[in-house]
Structure formats: C-alpha cells, structure tokens
Specification:
Rossmann fold, Deoxyfructose oxidoreductase, 329 residues, Gfo/Idh/MocA_domain, alpha/beta, globular, Gfo/Idh/MocA-like_OxRdtase_N
Length: 329
C-alpha cells in the first residue's frame, strides 16, 4: 500500500478552499483529513462543503490530533509565525502560505524552531513546482538568449472595493508587496540563482486602506549589474507577467504565476512558443512536500530561501516608507 500524508488545514481561507485543498486531493501523496476554524460552525460548514472527515473549533485541537502528519497554514500574515511554531512543537510538518512571515527575523525564528522540532517547513510558492521554470532555467543556462541583462515581472489585481479584506490591515501584514510583490521577487531570485544587494520602491500608501501599499513599483539590484523591475498592486487591472531580457533574446511569460503555463522564446534563430502541460501547481507542491517529509527527495526550496526572500521584502517595505534606496544585508 502506498504512503499517504495526512493534512490538516488551519483556517478556512479562500486560498485553502479553492486551491490548496483541491491540490492535495489531486496529488499523488496526500489526503485532507481535517480542517479547523476558531468557530466550530464555520469548520463544520466548510468540512461538509468540501467533504473533509474532521472539523475542529480551534487550531489547538487540530494540532493535538495524532492522525495529522502535516498542516497547511493560510492564516493572515501576522499569525504565520505563531501557528507555525505551535505546529512544529506539536510534531507537525508545516506548509505555510506566502509570505512566510512579517519579516526576516520572524522567518528565521520559524526555521530554527522547525529544525529543532525535526519537522519540514516550506513556504507555499506553488508556481515554482511546475516544470516550466526548470525549462526556463535550462534555456537561460544554454546561452540561447545570451547574458541576462534584466528581469521585469508584474502581479496586479483590483480588490480595493472590499474594505473588510484582511490584506488592508497594516498590523496584520497587509499590502501589495506582501501579498503579490513577493512573487516577482522570488522568481528573480530563482532564475538568477543570486541574492539581491539593494532595493528601491515607490508605493501608493492608501489612507482608505489603512495606509498599506495598494500599488508598488520597484527596482531590485542583483550582483553583476542585473536588476529586477517589478510592479504589484491590489488596486489595478489584473496581470501576472514575466520577461527575462538577454543580450541575444528574451523569454516572455504572459501568465507567470497563475494561468496557462506556456511561454515564448525570442532568440537569434527566430521565435517559438514553448507549450507546457497544464498541471495543478498546488498538487505538485503537495507532492514535493510529502516526498521531502518521507526523505525521498531533498527539499527543493529550503527555509533559508524563505528567510532570504523576506530580507528583500523587508527592504522593499522600508524603501516604500522612507522613499530611499535600502541596502540588503
């Protein structure tokens, strides 16, 4: 009989209901065994809606369940550290929604506590688990588009009218940089295999939305005079794009993080579309996580990677507030 990783879901967030829970069910390795909410009625309603066997009226109860191997945490950002550490101390492996924490210091503490408890900790950037990014890196390494001169990426959407949205609470880790700016930052680090040196960001800090950044445009400096330019928003038309610009060509990804996985390559020998299989990125993420838990493969993206991504986010947020270039230590 094949192994199965038994998942508990901490919270009834939309991303869990529409993406991660279906993803676990589409995976080769996992089952959703329980869901918890701070309101038992809400947990029961969600469990019934999604056919989940167990419902708990507190997160603590779920963590006490010996039949749960791992938890997925899609809670508001300010709760990520607390419940990751509690889960680790309860012996549960943790897949924590992005951004992993409010800052790099919190992320490092989470990594340390999980290491001490001997559990796997991963940040939920699902797009990285699709094979198209391995293919894009392969094209870059081949030299087909020459030396990389720059990366431009966007992730924008408009939810400004939903005034009760947790993303508009500054003390809860709200704002576009935390919510979607983290994607362009992570993809640039992934493709360049390097850590940035400095960041400069200009942002729309909206008084209507608790002064969180509803739109931000940034320049992130990498070694070798290569830069990421990006924009992210929760108050702009939808897009999620990526362009990798080289000396001899470029790669354009029209749906970089969500949507169809195909992309175009423009090189000296002409242009082509690389058509990739449409796969459930959340299922791929769940499978990679399970195989790491079982010791069948090394972890693809370590907690140290999450800490380094938070260092860049810290710099971007500080730059947006101070209107200054911030060096990343």
């Amino acid at each position: 009989m094949s192994k199965t990783l038994r998942w508990g879901i901490i919270g009834c967030a939309g991303i869990a209901k529409r993406a991660m829970i279906p993803g676990i069910r589409h995976s080769q390795t996992g089952v959703v065994a329980a869901i918890a909410s701070r309101e038992l009625s809400k947990a029961r309603e969600t469990a019934e809606e999604l056919d989940i066997p167990k419902a708990y009226g507190s997160y603590e109860e779920l963590l006490l369940d010996p039949e749960i191997d791992a938890v997925y945490i899609p809670l508001p950002n300010h709760l990520h550290m607390e419940w990751t550490i509690r889960a680790a101390k309860a012996g549960k492996h943790v897949l924590c929604e992005k951004p992993i924490a409010l800052n790099a210091e919190e992320a490092q503490r989470m990594a340390d506590e999980c290491a001490k408890a001997g559990v796997v900790l991963a940040e939920a950037f699902m797009y990285r688990h699709h094979p198209r990014y391995d293919r894009i890196k392969e094209i870059i390494r081949s030299g087909e588009i020459g030396d990389i001169r720059g990366i431009h990426s966007t992730f924008t959407f408009n939810s400004a009218g939903h005034k009760g949205n947790v993303r508009f609470r500054k003390d809860w880790g709200g704002g576009a940089i935390y919510d979607v700016g983290c994607y362009p930052i992570s993809v640039a680090r992934l493709l360049l295999d390097a850590e940035p040196e400095a960041a400069t960001v200009h942002a729309l800090l909206s008084p209507e939305h608790d002064h969180v950044d509803m739109m931000a445009s940034g320049l992130v400096e990498f070694p070798g005079s290569v830069a990421l330019t990006f924009d992210c928003a929760m108050w702009a038309a939808f897009r999620n794009t990526l362009e990798v610009l080289g000396t001899d060509g470029r790669i354009e990804v029209p749906s970089a993080f969500i949507g169809e996985p195909h992309f175009k390559v423009y090189a000296k020998d002409g242009e082509r579309e690389e058509r990739m299989e449409t796969l459930d990125q959340y299922a791929l993420q769940a499978d990679d996580f399970a195989r790491t838990v079982w010791g069948e493969q090394p972890q693809r993206f370590s907690p140290a990677d999450a800490v380094n991504n938070m260092k860049v986010i810290d710099a971007c947020l500080r730059s947006a507030e101070t209107r200054e270039r911030v060096v990343i230590s």
